[in-house]
Amino acid sequence: SVFSTPEIESEKVNELSARLLEVTEALKKSNDELRRVQREREEMLSNISHDLRAPLTAIRSAMDCLSLESLTEEERKQYLGTMDRRMKTLENLVADMYYLFCVEDTGKKLDFVKVSAAPFFEEYFIDATTDERYDTKDMQLDLDESLDAEINIDIQKIIRVLDNLFTNAAKYSDDGAMIKLSVVPVNGFLQVSVRDTGMGIPEEDVKNVFGRTFTVSSARTPNSATGSGLGLSIAKAIIERHGGTIDCESKLGEGTCFTFTLPVVTEQQNL
Ligand code: ADP
């Protein structure tokens, strides 16, 4: 205004330019984030098309072979077997992709219920020890009986995370390997780890295991593994929607440990 002194004017200008700088920074950050997400989507789409193409090609060529006239019964069975296996791969991939999109859709509510942590994890562990997939493994539980924490979880989703970590621990380890579930309270969170003494993950790959663009070299994947490669992306999305985090530590040839956290229900939330 006409009455303000030059000092006040310049103060205002300084304040305004500081705010402008702040807004510019914030815009730049969200722009970078948008670009990152966009890049991840593009990479995912290109990976998905690649992952879809391999089984489709196999099914197409098995079909072409099946339509040949002079086929022995043996060959016919073999081609049908190939088609069946590759169809399963496709079905798993499509189902996991759909599941991931649903979990990530924050417009869709999860089915949260409050449960006592100790019995929940104990029960899961007992079920696992009677599951034949883990028959040859050394199953261990580290859980303080007096743990009285409660957690708000979507039970089916957390079970899916545990299933993924347990089956991976079994898939990527030999007979006799240890699979250990530990549950400890740390600073208002529960820290849940699934540790194995299996083959481990190369150091340079550890940071990529949760990425949906991560496809493992087939040389490292056992034949029986029919996973879509999206299991850990799904686990991460589920844990993040519970307000927790998930991490991986691994040493090639020694074993792997996945740790996730879940917020503990506080007394105030109980009131
Ligand atoms: P997949 O369906 O391929 O198992 P995941 O997302 O569950 O997909 O895991 C991604 C990759 O991470 C696996 O293919 C495997 O190479 C590696 N991985 C996961 N868990 C373990 C583990 N416990 N030990 C060794 N490698 C693992």
Describe what this molecule looks like in 3D.
By secondary structure, this protein is α+β, with helices and mostly antiparallel strands. It is 52% helix and 17% strand. A five-stranded mixed β-sheet has the order 2-4-5-7-6. Strands 1-3 form a two-stranded antiparallel ribbon. Strand 6 and strand 7 form a beta hairpin. Helix 1 runs antiparallel to helix 2, helix 2 runs parallel beside helix 6 and helix 4 runs antiparallel to helix 6. It is extended and about 100 Å long. About 2% of the residues have low confidence. The site of adenosine-5'-diphosphate has 21 residues, from helix 4 and helix 6.
Care to give the gist of this entry?
The protein has 271 residues and is of the alpha+beta class.
